[in-house]
Design a protein that fits this description.
Elements: E1 7-8, E2 11-13, E3 26-33, E4 51-57, E5 63-66, E6 69-71, E7 76-81, E8 87-95, E9 106-114, E10 128-131, E11 134-139, E12 146-156, E13 159-160, E14 173-178, E15 187-189, E16 203-210, E17 216-221
Antiparallel strand pairs: 1-2, 2-3, 3-7, 4-5, 4-8, 6-7, 8-9, 10-11, 11-12, 12-13, 12-16, 14-17, 15-16
The structure holds copper (II) ion.
Copper (II) ion binds near residues 49, 52, 65, 67 and 168.
């Protein structure tokens, strides 16, 4: 299972610097430290970005998938940041150092605490959700220890949405975390990479591998 450690293959996620109080507008920054102790400055892009940052509150109720900027001379990644809710967060950095021998991304993670009133939530088991007038419904079942197909259908005002545009080199990005330890699942889109000008919809399919029984938190960007 990926995404359970600060370190993977000798690469390490350094200290996360971020605002310490709720609603303070500041910056979140960090470095990826190479096995030789220096910050990594060269990366290999995947899904059009050198690094994908996922920030999730430990109860699953807060989620963001963002793309910080790299200072190429210092190796520091940063982006404007404001904490909106208190609690304990897990920060995941998904990246592939250019000089590594690996052909798949590393997922490094750290815990960050945000002080304030915190009432943990229990995400409901549901197969649908809505945002900005779009409805998403997921079908398919995760099968323990096997690869399962998950399909997400997007509609708007009960009409199927058939003009989904590519975003970061795919028609959608699914992040799946195991409830309990927030282990980070490998998810692959089922379709080929979009060609220029190509659109898709209303269904986007993924292949997911769930190593253990239990509940999984799924987040879909499109
Ligand atoms: Cu990303």
């Amino acid at each position: 299972m990926n995404g359970l450690s600060i370190e993977q293959s000798g690469y390490r996620l350094g200290t996360i610097h971020a605002p310490t109080r709720l609603e303070d507008a500041g910056e979140l920054s960090f470095e990826i430290i190479a096995p030789d102790g220096r910050p990594v400055t060269e990366y290999e892009a995947s899904h059009e970005r050198d690094l994908h940052l996922v920030v999730v509150r430990a109860d699953g109720a807060e989620f963001s998938h963002v793309h910080p900027e790299l200072n190429h001379s210092t190796g520091t990644w940063s982006l404007p940041w404001t904490w909106k809710k208190a609690g304990t967060y897990r920060v995941f950095a998904d990246l592939l150092p250019a000089d590594s021998q690996h052909d798949h991304a590393l997922t490094l993670t750290r815990t960050v605490h945000v002080a304030g009133d915190f009432a943990p939530q229990t995400p409901e088991l549901t197969t649908s959700d809505s945002i900005d007038g779009f409805d998403a419904t997921i079908s398919g079942s995760l099968v323990t220890g096997d690869v399962s197909q998950l399909t997400i259908a997007i509609s708007r005002e009960s009409q199927p949405v058939t003009a989904i545009q590519p975003y970061l080199g795919a028609f959608g990005h699914l992040v799946a975390l195991r409830e309990g330890d927030l282990g980070y699942l490998h998810i692959h889109p089922e379709s080929e990479s979009p060609r220029p000008g190509e659109t898709s919809g209303p269904e986007i399919s993924f292949m997911a591998h769930a190593p253990t029984p239990g509940k999984y938190l799924l987040y879909f960007d499109f």
